[in-house]
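Deliverable D5.2: sample structural annotation.
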Amino acid sequence: MRFAESVRTRCALVLSTLATAGVLVYAWPTAGAAMVGPRPAVQKMRGCGAGHRVAKVDPPQEDPYVVTLRSARPALEQCMAKHPNVQVRLSIEIAPSGRVENVEVKTIAHDLANVDLKIVKCVETAVSSLEFPAAADPKRISTFLQP
């Protein structure tokens, strides 16, 4: 029985080898033949990457509230120049008209001996005179200042 099974397998291998060789002999002369005439145009496919268009993105415009707060930078740097180890948390409440309604200044330091109340008064004075853009609702801005 084993001999018959191995003969069938061997015959199948021989037949598949002969069939493959026959196909190669038939296709060999036409495989390298040059095409006559121009190639047809390539058609766009609707697969991966097709149809995706990159939209033009305008550069983001800076927030006018940030621009207004940055205008006070020289005065704020002058307030904190003598205190390099103190960090200030600044909260500003802005009325719909754009005027500063309230300024909250909190000083943060590892050593409380470094905290000077002159920093608080100086920062309040520098920020309270700012004019922000008018808005429909009151706004609140919070930020940290470091020397």
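Annotation notes: The mean pLDDT is 82. The two ends are 94 Å apart (CA to CA).
The annotation will be released with the project's public dataset once the embargo ends.
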